[in-house]
Amino acid sequence: MEIEHFSHPDHPLILINQVLEYSCELVICSGCEGPIWGPGYSCTSCYFFLHKKCAELPREIMRCIHPRHPLHLLPKSPYKGEYGCDRCQKTCKSFVYHCSVCEFDLDIKCAFQPGFFEVDSQAHQFAHKDHPLILNEEQEYHGEGVQCCVCKEPMSGPSYSCTSCNFFLHKKCAELPPEIKQHLHPEHPLRLLPNHDMICDFCNETCYESFLYFCIVCEYNLHIKCAFPPCIDAADQNQRHQFRRLMNPLSLKSISFTCNACGTDGDDSPFWCTMCQLVVHKKCISLPRTLKTELHQHPRIIHTYHPQKRIESINKYCGICCREVDTEYGVYYCPDCDFVAHVDCSGEYGDSATEIVVENEEEQSVTVDDQFNEPSFRVVREIKHGEERIIEEIEHFSHQHNLILTDKVDDDLKCDGCMLPISTPFYSCASCNFFLDKTCIELPRRKKWQYHENQLILSWSRGPHDLFYCNVCRQYFRGLRYKCDVCALWIDVRCFKSLEDSTKHGGHEHPLYLPADRKNILRCNIGGRGLRPWVAADGENIPHCSGCCVSEESKVFLKCVVCDFKLGMKCATLPYRARHEYDDHPLFLTYINANDYQPSCIICEEDRDPKLWFYRCEECDFDAHPECALGKYPYVKLGGVRTCPKHPHPLALVVKTEDYPACDTCGELCDDFALECTDPNCSFIVHRNRKQCFNSLW
């Protein structure tokens, strides 16, 4: 075995398991200055040797004698010449544990308890080296007063013995593992070392056994009895664990522990899994393996004791209470996304919303009922490359022609479903100017949404003059929408895709969440009458959005649980990229510009608050307010043409922002949405959003 060691960077060190000799003399360890009798590391190029234990010393330790700062292992004195150990006052020139802040030094023998450097393997090998030990598997009585030389308990049962020296060991003591990982001290492994009347850090009693388990990093001591406590009354079993109750030490009325199942503290007799060393509350033994909850969009969440092993990219915040999740302990997680939740939150938040699901053996993604899985498209043509399936042509319910898969995009293209800049790959119509992003294509036709009791239906209107008003972001749009036939909720798919339990936004460093009280706002308003619950009432105080500093009319907003950052849905769904006729390059949504010295909007030429979001072209030093860069109605596709019965020429949907003409029906100026005649010789125009004017066309 060959290693690279920090104390000898020039050459590698090779492990040699026999007694080292150099010129017929025992060699000296460069770490502790003691002779090397057992396994050690040697440099074949120069006279450098290390005990195996000296080579494996931790680079950093904490010690009670110097609790303020950690001590770092150095290969030689940090001063000129030798150093003086602050515990034994001896001078040394080899390895030293050093605090650079206090100039505190410990030689490595004082840094560890006596006997540490003499231990090489299992208990019977270092407890009695004079003669071999004989195994006796029979249960026999050894005589009154005969004790095990390790645990100091009377001898009984299978044992090792040396009859020449009257030396006895229980078989279980002789075969104690030299190193263990214990739930009582999960940070570091514990090593079996000779004991010198140390105090056990678990039961606070003096250890009288010959050996104990010791953490060389933290100086944590553990009785052998406490490391392997007796168990009584087997508890309820589940499919993967064998739990048994741990008996308390006589000196303790209860055992303080952190439950591996739920991550909360306990102070009673815990239950211990004999197979994997988990420690849990009694109530957590029977935790349901899977839960079904309406507080999350996917059909089930699964319990795991080991989130870091089970989940590749783990979310650090509970999707129900939004507080931080300790990923060292058990959680419920979703196999389909990065949703995680505290065990207590999953079981307690809304009893009627949570129910136990029949256990499945495999933790795999599952789907909801088939009625909620109906796709919004039909496959017309596809290609298969091995296991990969590429859908080349589809028929989508929103368009009269088939759509073809495309991987080349123009900067000016927008998705007709969400009206955001399109990204590859996407689907387009070869006959007309119609495009759908892949994420919009994959939206199901019917959806059971976690925030709404009744199913939502994906809808589309083919009328080019039809406009809709999103109940979440309070903006006009023309595209795909989910609607509820019970309460008349309309939600733009752009907002729908942004409303998740947690989301990462480029404008903030922490994850953003939909607060629990905001989720209730989205519940079904049965009957669809009166003030919608998602609309702010008069005088109601809605937090200002951190992106635009405006208090929105909508009650729905995202919130950061780490800091006071809040984001309204208008800003949360702003496109990252935009285009404007004043600049030849794309504009990018910018959250802060450290070089803002005289912020102003190039388009409207008014001052701009440097703390608020804006669109910017870095190449041209072009800055603009979001409303100036995007326009008044960024999610409405203008120019749609249709013929109406009461006018002979086709009419186009337009927005009038200047040179307001008078409406041919009511005579008032058209200063917003309007329907304008496409014939250059006809100046006909009417209001689009005035019912009287619009109906006059029909």
From TrEMBL:
Q: Which residues form the signal peptide?
A: none
Under InterPro entries, the record lists: C1-like_sf (IPR046349), DC1 (IPR004146), PKC_DAG/PE (IPR002219), Vacuole_Formation_Reg (IPR053192), Znf_PHD (IPR001965)
Is the keyword Metal-binding in the record?
yes
Instruction: Kindly name one Pfam family recorded for this protein.
Output: C1_2
* Domain Phorbol-ester/DAG-type intervals: 10-64, 123-181
For this UniProt entry, the molecular function terms from Gene Ontology, in alphabetical order, are: zinc ion binding
Q: Which domain of life is it from?
A: Eukaryota
Concerning SUPFAM superfamilies, the annotation shows:
Cysteine-rich domain
**Keywords on this record?**
Metal-binding, Repeat, Zinc, Zinc-finger
Residue ranges annotated as transmembrane are none
* Classification via PANTHER family: CYSTEINE/HISTIDINE-RICH C1 DOMAIN FAMILY PROTEIN, CYSTEINE_HISTIDINE-RICH C1 DOMAIN FAMILY PROTEIN
Q: What is this protein called?
A: Phorbol-ester/DAG-type domain-containing protein
